[in-house]
Here is the input.
Amino acid sequence: KQEVTQIPAALSVPEGENLVLNCSFTDSAIYNLQWFRQDPGKGLTSLLLIQSSQREQTSGRLNASLDKSSGRSTLYIAASQPGDSATYLCAVGKLIFGQGTELSVKP
Amino acid sequence: KAGVTQTPRYLIKTRGQQVTLSCSPISGHRSVSWYQQTPGQGLQFLFEYFSETQRNKGNFPGRFSGRQFSNSRSEMNVSTLELGDSALYLCASSLRLNSNQPQHFGDGTRLSIL
Here is the structure.
């Protein structure tokens, strides 16, 4: 049974720092992995989608990597800003989501 | 291009009642998935519809049901509501079943059971 874990559950950093969010999964036979952000009271916004055959995807200050053999994905955020404050979730396929990392970027 | 639209945004019901939630996917998207989000359990998959047929189902009781119409719009129904059904219900659409295109979410319906 696939399980997805995100560590840490919460993270607070000063503005301008580079940071890494982690996502691990137990079954390496995945179709794709998607990173989302969720603002309070809102739905999820898709950030990056990595196909199972890919190693990484980049969009602006965001870079997501995927290592299926070790069951890990990371989301790297460069030069963090207060507007990056949100909960970040990873999802394996459409079915299994992690519990999220709540990120707070302090001005 | 309009995003995923969910109605209503907020609902208050009492135990034992039933409720119907609606989701209009992005134009051209044919797959619609439903999720329940609670502080304790996080985001849990309910079911996925494609071409008016349920294709995947999560581990929820039969009180939770859904359907999809020919225009890809979807509804979710919960009967005999319980206090534990209080949650944010999210709908997501994508182009196809098992698509390698990203999922797009609506802002959800917040259901409160009194």
Remarks:
- The CA atoms of residues 83 and 113 of chain B lie 5 Å apart.
